[in-house]
Amino acid sequence: MTRHRILTGGIGKTEVADAIGRLGLEGVEITVSSDLDAAMKLPAGQADYYLGTCHTGAGASLGVLVGLLGRPACHTFGRSVPTEDEARSLLDGGKRVFGFALDRLESVVPVIARAIAGRAV
Questions:
Q1: Which of 50, 53, 57, 91 is most buried by its number of CB atoms within 10 A?
Q2: DSSP letters for the chain
Q3: What are 6's strand-pairing partners?
Q4: Distance CA 71, CA 12 (A)
Q5: Residue 86's pLDDT band (boundaries 50, 70, 90)?
Q6: For residues 108 and 84, what is the distance between their CA atoms, to the nearest angstrom?
Q7: Which InterPro entries does the record associate with it (predicted)?
Q8: How far apart, in whole angstroms, are the C-alpha atoms of residue 73 and residue 40?
Q9: Are strands 74-76 and 49-54 parallel, antiparallel or unpaired?
């Protein structure tokens, strides 16, 4: 049973989807997508979260989504790696869209994907 639908986008969208898949999290559905697709699916309830990547994690990973969904739904980690507590706190605060630098993928994805998978539906 799928509980959490995650879209991946940006320059590392396939790598992010693969990294989430390697975690073997139950109840998580991963779809390689785009920021424009996420901008339509998230408000329509067809997806729950978006993880986007760019070279710096500072802008292009989320630019379209910040503009269309608003900053309250979006957070970029930039080049930092969140702690589990930070990831849970952002999710609890209503963030559904996350951006980060492609070269931080292997560190960021497990933290945010596990935090998402651990959430109640």
A1: 50
A2: ---EEEEEEETTHHHHHHHHHHHT-TTEEEEE--HHHHHHHHHHTS-SEEEEEESSSSSTTTHHHHHHH-GGGEEE-TT----HHHHHHHHHTT--EEEEEGGGHHHHHHHHHHHHHTS--
A3: 30, 49
A4: 22
A5: very high
A6: 10
A7: DUF2620
A8: 14
A9: unpaired
Q: Which amino acid is at 45?
A: G
C-alpha to C-alpha distance for 30 and 64, rounded to whole angstroms: 20
Structure tokens at 71: 């900053």
Tokens representing 63 are 């630019």
4-118 in CATH: which number? Answer: 3.40.1400.10
**Among residues 120, 121, 23, which one has the least CA distance to residue 51?**
23
Tell me the percentage of the chain whose pLDDT exceeds 90.
82
Q: How do residues 22-48 score in pLDDT, each as one tens digit?
A: 999 999 999 999 999 999 999 999 999
Residue where the block lists tokens 């080049």:
79
